Amino acid sequence: MQSLGIDVLFKGTNFLRLLGGLWVALRISLVSVSVSILLGLAVGVLMTSKNPIIKAFFRVYLEIVRIMPQMVLLFVVFFGSTRVFGWNLAPETSAVIVFSFWGVAEMGDLVRGALISIPRIQYESAEALGMTENQTYLYIILPQTIRRLIPLSINLITRMIKTTSLVIMIGIVEVLKVAQQIIEANRRVSPNAAFGIFAVVFLLYFLLCWPISKLASYLEKRWA
Amino acid sequence: MSLLEIRHLHKAYGDKTILKDFDLTVEKGDVVVVIGPSGCGKSTFLRCINALEEIQGGEVLIDGEPIRRSAKNISSMRQKVGMVFQSYDLFPHKTILENILLAPLKVQKRNRSEAEAEAMELLERVGLADRRDDFPRQLSGGQKQRVAIVRALIMHPEILLLDEITAALDPEMVREVLDVVMSLAKAGSTMMIVTHEMAFAKAIATRVLFLEKGEIVEESCDAKAFFEHPKTKRAERFLKSFEY
């Protein structure tokens, strides 16, 4: 069998560089996820609104996010908007804007779903016990909503982490780009590095997302 | 002064009238059984009494005080009225004991050890003391309904509303729930019961209301006489439908 090309990983600072790239991907996801959760909670509550204008607005927003590939959104923001509006957006800022735009919509929809899945009778039994509206939300509705929400939103988080690999297209040097650079630089001495290094990248993504999705299924079981 | 007084109660959803000009007075110790075909408004009627439903006319007085959905005193008024629903309405994220203690602690601001002692005493009475730390999903439907009754009782309501509490239960679980209700009646609790269990209704009622299309068609203070010889044709036809 030919060499797997893993040896390249241990040349110079290659492994550290890969980890650095992973950190870039993680940083973009962490910021976008935080924005998505915070704004998503508010958007989710608004999505349950009975006001037809508010409802239609968020419906359109959600559809746009679902229909547009994230890469197109990245291009529109990074290459398109900077030209048309003449502003200056760093690639990483553009990435955070796009991923947050996406995440807020998806998170909002999850929150909306969790809120409307709480049966009417839960509100009514709390009311019948003399609880005020605030007490009902605080002790009955929110705890149940959050339980339903946590596993779902964790899945969204792992999806966002994985999708950050697209930012390579607007020139951000994250883990995948670093991997390509390492492979290119060692093309002559270790032509098989493409296998070894990309396998390591796979492993890094796995190590990042697996515990998160494990946590999700654990919580899902515990709170089912 | 009567415990519960309903005057000219009018309830409608849009153009559709559910309850027409309802009048009723309930005294302490009464066990009022409300029967009638489905859609006659009996559940809505119970829900109007603790203001779960907006009413379009008339008033509901408890101890002479009106209970209104948007009034400031709604929380304290509702504490006078206990309610148990048809579906298992326990809070799924809380244990049995926490389900029972939530309202006494948060709404009535009672002392925990005192409320817990009473909760355990009540659970003992319905035979579920050993399930205190279980979650609702671990209980059978009948057990859940008994807990729901305890959760209402611990608030010391002056009147208890039971809305088809056995309708969603398997037949063999109906008995254990009705036995609890029966013992409450014997202890002198005031109750309004919507039910389709006619044998139970006959045994427990001190008064019977027969409803159809949002109106009281027949009212009787003698349950035995009503169930054996109803005065109106419509009640007779309704009762016949339970015979085979």
Give the helix level of chain B as a range of percent: 25-40%
* Straight-line N-to-C gap of chain B: 44 Å
CATH superfamily of chain A: MetI-like
- Total number of β-strand segments of chain B? 10
User: CATH class of chain B, please?
Assistant: Alpha Beta
Q: Please give the largest β-sheet of chain B.
A: 6 strands, mixed
Overall shape of chain A: it is elongated
Number of helices of chain B: 9
User: What structural class do helix, strand and pairing data of chain A support?
Assistant: mainly alpha
Can you lay out the helices and strands and say which pair or pack?
The complex is a heterodimer of chains A (224) and B (244).
Chain A lengths: L13 H34 L4 H16 L2 H16 L5 H26 L3 H9 L4 H31 L11 H11 L7 H31 L1
Helix pairs in contact in A: 1-4, 1-6, 1-7, 2-4, 3-4, 4-6, 5-6, 6-8, 7-8
Chain B lengths: L3 E10 L2 E11 L4 E5 L6 H8 L7 E6 L2 E2 L7 H5 L2 E4 L11 H11 L5 H14 L15 H13 L5 E5 L7 H16 L4 E4 L3 H7 L2 E6 L2 E6 L2 H6 L4 H8 L4
Parallel strand pairs in B: 3-8, 3-9, 6-7, 7-8
Antiparallel strand pairs in B: 1-2, 1-4, 4-5, 9-10
Helix pairs in contact in B: 3-4, 3-5, 5-6
